[in-house]
Design brief:
Order of helices and strands: HHHEEHHHHHHHH
Radius of gyration: 17 Å
Largest sheet: 2 strands, antiparallel
Distance between the termini: 50 Å
CATH topology: Cytochrome Bc1 Complex, Chain D, domain 2
Shape: globular
Oligomer: single chain
CATH class: Mainly Alpha
Length: 222
């Protein structure tokens, strides 16, 4: 059964890769500007620029670290909020006000914070967690160290906050809710294989892996 689930997951991955490649190619017509992105990020730093800052919706968790993500992922995630594929009211409101140029500039700005390189091989997982990760074929998209995704529109997740990773993973299992959830058939199929307890174990391990993400606060938030 586990072999069948892994095969299905890898089939999903292959289809997602083709879609992501097409989306990336479409977005290549807009170039981001780091300096412009820094100015536009004023709307972002109140949450993403404060170390340890917590969000209380849909439950209390640390806001994700986005400094060090690829520009393509920043753009992809903002477009998902704009389209309602990610249903976070605050983020959807912000994304809805952005043009493609705005998104490209923000992507360039946050990608410019990438100054570290994750180890090629992450710390060893327990046998139980390793089996859970294999079941979802996680490394097939996010890379063996969870910081080198196969497509730049996919997120780096190594070292990301555990509570955020749990909330994000769980959101793919939500259906029929106008305020909570993420519409992604690939991730939904993977996430629904796990219980909440298993999601927490996966999130805890991935958060412990040395990654490339960080918080870069402005001086007034240090």
């Amino acid at each position: 059964m586990n072999h069948l689930l892994t095969t299905i997951a890898r089939t999903f991955v292959a289809a997602a890769t083709l879609c992501a490649a097409a989306a990336t190619a479409h977005a290549q017509g807009v170039s981001g500007d780091v300096a412009a992105g820094q100015k536009k990020a004023e709307m972002c730093v109140g949450c993403h620029g404060i170390p340890g800052y917590q969000n209380s919706f849909p439950e209390i968790h640390k806001v994700p670290m986005i400094s060090g993500q690829s520009a393509q992922y920043i753009v992809s995630s903002l477009k998902a909020y704009q389209k309602g594929e990610r249903k976070h009211p605050s983020m959807r409101g912000i994304a809805g006000s952005l043009s493609e140029q705005d998104m490209a500039d923000l992507g360039a700005f946050y990608a410019s914070h990438a100054t570290t390189t994750a180890p090629e091989t992450p710390k060893a997982a327990s046998a139980k967690v390793a089996a859970l990760i294999e079941k979802g074929a996680c490394v097939s998209c996010h890379g063996a160290n969870f910081s080198k995704p196969i497509d730049p529109s996919y997120p780096k997740i190594g070292g990301q906050h555990a509570d955020y990773l749990f909330v994000a993973l769980k959101s793919y299992t939500v259906e029929g809710n106008n305020l909570v959830g993420r519409s992604n058939g690939i991730m939904a199929g993977i996430a629904k294989q796990y219980s909440p307890a298993e999601m927490r174990e996966i999130a805890k391990y991935i958060s412990s892996v040395e990654g490339e993400l960080k918080v870069v606060p402005q001086s007034r938030f240090k």
